[in-house]
Amino acid sequence: MGFNISGIAINSNYENKIQELQKDLGFSLEFIEEVYFETASANWTDSKDAFIYFDKESTLIFLNSDFCDDSYDVDKKEVLTFALFESSMAFYFSYTVDKKLMREVMEVNGDYICNEGSPLPFEDRCDDTSEMIWTQLDKILSTNFHSIELGEKAYKYKISFNKVDASDKTYDSISGSDLISNDLNKTNDIDEEEPKLSGCGCVLLSTIAILIIASIFFSIKLAFDIIL
Question: In 64-219, which ranges are E strands?
């Protein structure tokens, strides 16, 4: 089945700054329990759950894909939003630096549905978007994702959504070239809202749903043919 995970990585440790994390991302988080990283990083995170792993210099949050349909940005920080679904070969990521959207890519079954911003320096060495996600994730974290011990501590939270989508997006190059579109307008709302689908992420979630339904249909058909 491979990896079927989605979430947010930030190059800053929020372990003792949960209130700040909620403010920066527009989430409401209610602590539930301590868990192992194996549980936190398991496939298909429930829509009501958030699992957070804190490394020395970074924070990794595992979320349901409904929370990862658009980019997140934080002042003076690097943020990677990602959805990596190997079972359906659907991949999405956005990368922001100091509230500027640098890169946004979505690939489904080898086709690029969204490809915005300037390529990251390592992209020519990657075979597909999943490799871009793993490479950039390791750069954001202060450790290699696959080197994290499954028995390390992580934390489970109940999550509710307060984020308001942006109406415009800004793309910049890593070298800091001129912006090629309007400034990014993204704010947090104090009233709780349901996630809003938009842009690349909306197409991603719709595609994943179609692929899952198709997979179930063909599995049932195969079982029926075997019985006959």
Answer: 78-85, 90-97, 100-108, 111-117, 153-161
